[in-house]
Amino acid sequence: MSIVRNSHFALPLQVAAICYRRRAGAIEFLLVNTNGGSKWTFPKGAPEARLSHSQAAHREAWEEAGAIGIIEPRHFHIYIHSKGVFWQNSGVQEYVVKAFLMEVHDTETPEETQRNPTWFSADEARKILAKGREVKYANELRAVIDRALEHIRPEKTSAKYDSRAAARPALPS
């Protein structure tokens, strides 16, 4: 028996760049303020038809955090994220987010200047990502940090999307 999934009930998709760097033997994560500025999050957004999901995540990292680096071509984790609050008319919208690791080599002023990109240790990132969120979503974001740390190795040799050659990601016209 085959099961057909009705897309009417599927959650919308977003892509996130889990930006990290190595500093003094530790891993740090680059987070940005949400649009409202009250919480921290990973650079993320909707995928674009003309880009692969990893390229779309890379673009979000550059636009929101000014991050320049190497992004993995395949996602390493999927998590549930929410936008909105239950007491407003629009309510809460959940999203499925594909997370891509991106090793950051440099940063510049992001396009979205209100995002305040900031580096945090893994422990600090877990705490600040949980702040102001429902437990369910806080746990999802903590799991992203934990999974990222499991996947980051001293030197990866797989093929990656490298943006060091250009400040802005090369996008199809």
Any idea what the CATH superfamily is called?
Nucleoside Triphosphate Pyrophosphohydrolase
Q: What helical percentage do the residues reach?
A: 10-25%
Instruction: Report the sheet with the most strands, covering strand number, pairing sense and barrel closure.
Output: 9 strands, mixed
Instruction: Provide the number of structural domains.
Output: 1
- CATH structural architecture: Alpha-Beta Complex
Radius of gyration: 16 Å
Mean pLDDT: 85
Order of helices and strands: EEEEHEEEEHHE
Total count of strands: 9
The third-level CATH topology is: Nucleoside Triphosphate Pyrophosphohydrolase
Number of helices: 3
* Terminus-to-terminus distance: 43 Å
Indicate the structural class.
Answer: alpha+beta
* Overall shape: globular
Provide tags for this entry.
3 helices; globular; Nucleoside Triphosphate Pyrophosphohydrolase; alpha+beta; 173 residues; 9-stranded mixed beta sheet
